[in-house]
Design a protein that fits this description.
With about 300 residues, this protein is an alpha+beta fold. It contains nine helices and eleven strands. It has helices at about 5-10, 20-30, 65-70, 75-85, 90-105, 130-140, 150-160, 195-215, 280-295, and strands at about 35-40, 40-45, 50, 60-65, 165, 170-175, 180, 185-190, 225-235, 245-260, 260-270.
Length: about 300
């Protein structure tokens, strides 16, 4: 039977979760565009160590923009801590869970016109043990699962001003007289994030892409358009044991493109890429984004 992995396969998406973590904490108002913090380059939580998978520049003062551009797991963990007043506590877990489920729509079907849609898995704020490290992992896209359509819909809401539209495969309906009636978009939620947070997230994602475009193979992007994006490199869970494989990763990339405002959301997932020299998101998934732009529009 035909299956569409965009809707039917939920997996740990990795660092493409970080823009959503940043958007949540900015929307809460506990961090703003002028906030900086000291990043220790590692945290020990519940006897487990959170480290950065990519080059992070070592300990030092960082900003929210740095967290996305350098893809700091420690930075995402620090953002989660701010939801709890400086630590990963009950309040932090509840607030992050609220955004994941009620703002971003994770853990439930989007309602797209596609059979066998997976809902993914978002652990509750009191589920199981090791809640500190579990929620730290969730801040950078591990320990929870989403489908690509869920990620696309959530990011769309965070960069379009805060409106969550139900994803759809239907552009319109052909009437008896042969004319086409456009399908009206279904608004599932307003104020996913505040409009000013949406604008700020666009700036951060554009900065991230601009700083890394050579690595991503995107040097030739048309300067007349706005581009924003974020890579992800996610460890794959070992279902036959506890923990993750040391040598198996998924590569992900999420980005948008438009003129003055975002017009298209593009999400890429490369399963267990091989023969790459760097991290799966940057080396395998991000380069796929550029050719897709030319499918969307040759002018990009």
């Amino acid at each position: 039977m035909f299956a569409n992995p965009i809707t039917s396969e939920a997996f740990e998406v990795g660092s493409i979760m970080k823009p959503l973590t940043a958007a949540a904490v900015l929307d809460m108002g506990v961090v703003n565009q002028n906030t900086s913090y000291y990043d220790p380059a590692s945290y020990v939580i519940d006897n487990e160590t959170v480290r950065n998978i990519e080059e992070d520049g070592g300990p030092g003062t960082k900003t929210v923009a740095d967290i996305l551009q350098l893809s700091l797991n420690t930075g995402a963990t620090w953002l989660l801590m701010q939801m709890g007043g400086g630590e990963i506590n009950q309040q932090a877990r509840e607030r992050w869970h609220d955004y994941l489920v009620n703002h971003y729509g994770f853990g439930r079907a989007t309602g797209v016109e596609q059979g066998d849609e997976a809902i993914g898995y978002v652990p509750g704020p009191n589920d199981g043990f090791g809640l500190g490290i579990r929620y730290a992992n969730m801040s950078f896209g591990q320990g929870q699962t989403q489908t690509l359509i869920q990620i696309a819909a959530a990011l769309n809401a965070t960069v379009n001003g805060g409106t969550y539209y139900r994803p759809t495969l239907v552009e319109g309906y052909v009437k008896d007289d042969g004319t086409v009636e456009a399908k009206k978009p279904d608004v599932m939620r307003d104020n996913v994030v505040k409009p000013e947070v949406s604008q700020l997230l666009q700036q951060y994602m554009e900065y991230t892409l601009e700083k890394n475009k050579v690595t991503y193979g995107m040097s030739a992007l048309n300067g007349a358009y706005s581009f924003g994006g974020k890579t992800g490199t996610a460890q794959i869970a070992n279902l036959d044991a506890v923990g993750y494989y040391d040598d198996r990763f998924n590569g992900t990339f999420v980005g948008y493109v438009g003129g003055d405002e975002p017009e298209y959301i593009i999400v890429v997932w490369v399963q267990e890429p091989s023969n790459i020299t760097g991290y799966a998101g940057a080396q395998a998934a991000a380069p796929v984004y550029f050719p897709i732009l030319y499918v969307v529009s040759p002018n990009f």
